[in-house]
From TrEMBL:
Residues 14-166 form the CheW-like domain. The modification 4-aspartylphosphate is found at residue 247. This is Putative CheW protein. The keyword Protein biosynthesis does not apply.
Length: 317
């Protein structure tokens, strides 16, 4: 099998990241500039371009929004990542680059000092950021990985875009009647504390009892505990949890690998699995299908998430 085919496989717990850097100005005139290394999932990157001609916007939510530019008849906002992260950008010897991204059906461009290369890594090598790293990065870091002797921070572009556009955040449709006679249990796996708490709150409003964990590894360990209990008591897994909702991008174990493990386990496979991620697009949906996901929903369609979770549970009932 060629490497190209391997890269297209789902459930291998691997990802490709674009590594780029930001040049940070020194605090003192005699100091040297600092270069920070960052990464973003290739699946979110449309293309990398030279600095375009930017038109200022009349009103912006944050000073990091430099304006917008026209790319093949699409008007795309441009965010200076250095400013967003609270850094003073240093002028490098090379002109800056622009990374054009698409996720959650939103196209946004980010200006960086330079782009290094693409790496293929395992999610097992990605560590969650500690509290200090999360705090100093405005909670915009989802993972930390060491590559070729460098520490590379994986950026939470979803949070950045949602903070710049609050209307893009998760919202539950309150016009829907969520009253139900049965209260179901959901296990949710998401590495973003903000998304995790919002999902938990919104699913609870939809009459779900929710247990939330930080990543796919924690979800798999929890399911293993429930499996041992169920086999000892002679009860099916659906007596303990009726639906599993998982993000895709997570340190230690991603959602595709988690789903693949669940569906390959004779005891656990009866749990409906919903992949709920910004990576659910027409181009990438086949990966979720390959690992046996029962449904795939793009953020921030949280109302559809609750409805379709109920439909899957009751359809199996």
């Amino acid at each position: 099998m060629s490497q190209t085919n391997i890269l297209l496989e789902a459930g291998t717990n691997e990802l490709e990241i674009v590594e780029f850097h930001l040049e940070e100005a020194a605090d003192t005139p005699e100091g040297a500039p600092y270069r920070g290394y960052y990464g973003v999932n290739v699946a979110k990157v449309l293309e990398i371009i030279r600095m375009p001609k930017v038109t200022e916007l009349p009103e912006v939510q944050h000073r990091s929004v430099l304006g917008a530019f026209n790319l093949r008849s699409h008007i795309i906002p441009l965010v200076d990542l250095s400013l967003w992260l609270g850094k003073r950008r240093a002028e490098g010897t090379e002109p800056p680059k622009v990374i054009v991204t698409e996720f959650n059906n939103v196209t946004t461009a980010f200006m960086v000092s330079g782009v290094n290369r693409i790496h293929r890594i395992s999610w097992e090598s990605v560590e969650p950021p500690n509290r200090y790293v999360a705090a100093v990065s405005n909670n915009s870091i989802t993972g930390v990985v060491q590559l070729e002797g460098r520490i590379v921070f994986l950026l939470d572009l979803e949070k950045i875009v949602a903070d710049l556009n609050p209307q893009l955040g998760l919202r539950l449709d309150h016009a829907v009647d969520w009253s139900a006679n049965t209260r179901y249990r959901a296990l949710i796996a998401d590495d973003s504390g903000l998304i995790r708490e919002m999902l938990k709150d919104l699913m609870q409003k939809a009459n779900f009892e929710v247990e939330a964990v930080n990543n796919g590894r924690e979800a798999w360990d929890r399911l293993a505990e429930l499996k041992a209990k169920g086999e000892q008591e002679g009860r099916p897994i659906t007596d303990y949890v009726q639906v599993l909702v998982s993000d895709i991008e997570m340190p230690s174990m991603d959602g595709h690998n988690l789903c693949k493990r669940v569906k390959e386990d004779n005891y656990l496979r009866g749990i409906p699995v919903i992949l709920f991620s910004s990576l659910i697009t027409d181009k990438l949906r086949h990966k979720g299908m390959a690992v046996g996901a029962d449904d795939q929903i793009s953020k921030p369609e949280v109302t559809h998430l609750a409805k379709r979770a109920l439909a899957l549970i009751e359809g199996r009932g």
